[in-house]
Amino acid sequence: MKKRTHYTKLCIILISLLVCGITVAQQDLPSDKGATKETASLYKNLQKLAGKGFMFGHQDDLAYGVEWKYKEGRSDVKEVTGDYPAVYGWDLGGIERQNNELNIDGIPFKKMKQFIKQGYERGGVITISWHLDSPLGNYKNAWDTTHGTVASINPGGANHTLYKEWLDKVAAFIGSLKGSKGEAIPVLFRPFHEHTGNWFWWCKNAATGFEYKTLWRFTVYYLQKEKELHNLLWVYNTSGDFKTKEEYLERYPGDDMVDVLSFDNYQYGDPLKEKWFEVNTNTALQVIGEIATAKNKLFALAETGFEAIPYASWWTETLLNAIGGNKISYVLVWRNHGYSNDMKKMHYYAPYKGQVSEQDFVKFYTMERTLFEKDVNKEKLYQ
């Protein structure tokens, strides 16, 4: 009897250890338990990488820059630093339109696919947002704020079938992203971003929290289960105006549907006169950092920047202060869209050769914490 009792206790201990081991192992897995090998490896390696520093990202980096467009191998970031960004941002806005070949920023989807493959093959990370049109039609774009739009595309809504057709197009594009060995390229997918603002049709002024959560969960379900896409890491993204964990999580769809916590926050005004951007961004990062640690998720500053970067030391004296000691996965600045024939339309967020913050950006690049493409290439993120 004593031997049997001892044996039983031993079995219980062994089983407990095994269960603990499984739990720890699962913590390193993305929310999609069927994720591809490369996607699961990326998630696990990004968790480790955050301990070393944060990746720098740039929207549309390979497509165009200040006074150039579609020139093979060109990048404003590379021309300043000698290196490409570690994270490449792209947008699928426009893919939902009938027979449309260009995205919202005028980039042909065929070219975008090529750019994505180039960045991935060099070891970079791909993130994609989606400024999708309003499903209500009448040429309404993402910035329409008609209440009830989200409800119309949720299950049971009048435009639900239309939304599934749009998702089919998204799935076809993302599913066509393949590496040189035929593997699916992992993507950090950031749909319905800045949803706590008041400028998109999926924002809080136009949709209830329940409607937003339903939209998110259906989108994940449809792309994973119906379209069998397993190369996505899901990026939950708010605007930067929250103050508490409760406020940030008010529209959170669930741990089983999210891999990265993030928000967007831009610099406005003179950083020499006021520190709003630094203080607000740092505080917000601390808030989501605590949530990410508790949930074992990645966290990031998914969109930021200072248009035209007029402050010469913005990178090392403002942005770095805003990030502070927070162990974010990445920070991404918005696109460089410059017109030489109309200086009033200059729209850029990363420096180019001769730009006033160029030297400070080089200093930013050389810092140990800032990770660019050469740095992440050494990490073999997909292995």
Helices and strands in order:
Blueprint: H1 2-27, H2 37-49, E1 54-59, E2 64-65, E3 68-69, H3 76-81, E4 87-91, H4 109-121, E5 125-130, H5 149-153, H6 160-175, E6 187-191, H7 209-226, E7 232-239, H8 245-248, E8 260-264, H9 276-295, E9 298-304, H10 314-323, E10 330-333, H11 358-366, E11 370-371, H12 373-379
Parallel strand pairs: 1-4, 1-10, 1-11, 4-5, 5-6, 6-7, 7-8, 8-9, 9-10
Antiparallel strand pairs: 2-3
Helix pairs in contact: 9-10, 10-11
User: Mind summarizing the main beta sheet?
Assistant: 8 strands, parallel, barrel
Give the tally of structural domains: 2
How many E-type strands?
Answer: 11
**CATH fold field value of the largest domain:** TIM Barrel
Share of residues in strands: 5-15%
| Number of separate helices | 12
CATH class of the largest domain: Alpha Beta
Helical content band: 25-40%
What gyration radius follows from the Cα positions, in whole Å? Answer: 22 Å
Low-confidence stretches: 1-26
Numbering strands along the chain, what is their spatial order in the largest sheet? 1-4-5-6-7-8-9-10
Shape: globular
User: What is the level-2 CATH architecture name of the largest domain?
Assistant: Alpha-Beta Barrel
**Whole-number mean pLDDT:** 92
Query: What distance lies between the first and last C-alpha atoms, to the nearest angstrom?
Result: 50 Å
Task: Give the SSE order as H and E letters.
Answer: HHEEEHEHEHHEHEHEHEHEHEH
The CATH superfamily of the largest domain is identified as Glycosidases
Class from helix and strand fractions: alpha/beta
